[in-house]
């Protein structure tokens, strides 16, 4: 099944000193011809994704992982 998804959606791994995150990108950014605008659109979508996640019960559940 993972191979099938790989063909459908490009994957991107983002890494900082604290986090490694692999995401599958469902949106087709190829319609945005200007490179800078395409990049800006992607970054804005990524920010929106994070902001939406912050509002979910899953984000609370994840933080509870670190409770004693």
Q: What are its keywords?
A:
68 residues; alpha+beta; 51% helix
Please write out the topology.
Elements: H1 2-8, E1 11-15, E2 20-24, H2 35-54, H3 57-64
Antiparallel strand pairs: 1-2
**Overall mean pLDDT score?**
92
Can you summarize the main beta sheet? 2 strands, antiparallel
Low-confidence stretches: none
User: Beta-strand percentage?
Assistant: 5-15%
> Which strands sit side by side, in order, in the main sheet?
1-2
Helix/strand order, N-terminal first:
HEEHH
**DSSP, total strands:** 2
Backbone shape: elongated
User: What is the percent of helical residues?
Assistant: 40-55%
Number of helices: 3
Rg, Cα atoms, Å: 15 Å
Q: Span between N and C termini?
A: 36 Å
Output the structural class.
alpha+beta
Can you offer a commentary on this structure?
51% of the residues lie in helices and 15% in strands. The longest helix has 20 residues. With 68 residues, it is an alpha+beta fold. The mean pLDDT is 92. A two-stranded antiparallel ribbon has the order 1-2. The chain is built from three helices and two strands.
């Amino acid at each position: 099944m993972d191979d099938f998804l790989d063909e459908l959606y490009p994957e991107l791994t983002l890494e900082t000193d604290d986090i490694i995150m692999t995401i599958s990108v469902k949106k087709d950014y190829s319609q945005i011809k200007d490179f800078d605008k395409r990049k800006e659109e992607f970054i804005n979508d990524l920010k929106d994704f994070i902001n939406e996640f912050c509002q979910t019960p899953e984000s609370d559940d994840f933080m509870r992982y670190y409770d004693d």
